[in-house]
Amino acid sequence: MSLKKKIAFGFIISSSIIAILVIFEYVSFVQIRREIRSLEVADSIRSKTLELRRHEKNFFLFGQTKGVEETKAILRYLTELDSIIAENLPDDRAGGLSSLRALIQGYGKRFRTIEALVNDLSGEFDNIRPSYGRYALLLYLKSAFLDRPRETADFLKDEYGFSRNARLIKDLWELYSETNALRKNGEDILIASKNLDSAARAKVERVISISQGAILAIFPLFLIVGIGTLFFISGNIVSRLHALIDTVEKTGKGNFPRMSLLSGWGRNDEVGLLIEKFNTMEEQLARREEELERKNRELLQSKKLAAIGTLASGVAHELNNPLNNIYISSQVLEKEVHEACSPTVEETVNDILTQTVRVKRIVGDLLEFARGSEPRLARVDLKALISGAYRLVSTTTDTSRVNFILESDSGDAFIDADSEQLERVFINLFTNAVDAMSGSGNLSVRVQKERTAVTVKISDTGKGMSAEDTEKIFEPFYTTKDKGTGLGLAIVFNIIKRHSGEIVAESGTGKGTTFVITLPVRGEGHEL
Questions:
Q1: What is the pLDDT of residues 70-84, one digit of tens each?
Q2: Fold (CATH) for 378-520
């Protein structure tokens, strides 16, 4: 987003906040009016519920004298309550009216059941009165059973000997049970109506409080957002420009730090695009610096190898003729000492011959390192060459406990290379790997094909090398072995370089070693 759009966006936000405040207050006004209506309904329901409970109490106290009048009042209030609830059910979002209506309907059913029981009990009292004396007492029981049905039942059992299974006793107990249930039902209705009234009042107060809070919060927010947006935009731009200036100064001193890009708000404006372009330039400069350092290291290495090669060539040529003479003389002397000399002399001659052979091999390595002959390129099946090199190693070294694995992404990997020189590379690397694993472990080779190059990864499970050793292993005469000239990997390095390839070592103490060789594919149509 451009800076111009950001400024316009800030003003739009401020205007939107005022519009939101107006809309919110209008909605709050409508909601307050609706909640006041709900409060009026809840208040009406509560007052009628209190009247219903009052007539319920009078019904049980004066049922014999005012029973019909109280019954009509109870039924009238039940009808009015049901009518009020039915009218307001569409607005019943919390479900309070629905549950209250269910309670009132249950109350009405139970009251009609009690009304029927009262009529039945009155008839039963009238039926048994001629059969018993003390009519005045029975008249008293008839007038008192509605308020105290359980006590009346116990009195009839104790004084008149009524059985527990007598119909009058059963009806009195049923009346007692239904009366308690009705009173409990009425109490639930009263509690529900009270909760409904309290909830309606709380909603009205909450809506009014929210409306007041919105006015107190949104208007200052408008001022804060307007001023804050102005300072934020200007401060954001200035801070990023200062950071860019600091980064430019560091770049001038040879450092190439990357500036972090803000997400969203500060990413796509003019300053953000400038930072992004600057980061791209920094990355390119850093890559060029790394490439320059690498080329310098390679140049230094090449000069060092050339100097060492010249020295090695001169030393090897000077030593070669005397060594040949010593070797021939030792062979002649060995033939002469078989019969005429003591075992000590014979052992000494054999040792001279063995050490002469060893020195000749070292001199041969020096000559090989110094010659640096150019490879004679030919079409080579790299997988077959690797397998053949490992078989040659197995003829001179015990590999019975080595698990050799050769993997490839697809079929044969053909490249243009000098097969003899590459064979020497792999023989040297395989021999070093077997020595590093003490003759036991996993030696894996993976060939990966690409369009213009092939990569060979040779990994062992040996003891590995430290970071310091890994950096120096391709230098002439540097070795980590107790016995060795330190020329093997230097020769490998020269051969790979003469093939325009790359070789790097990855290792860690106790983690094994991996050599990664990258060789180009040469020639017309030689795609992998």
A1: 888 888 888 888 888
A2: Heat Shock Protein 90 (3.30.565)
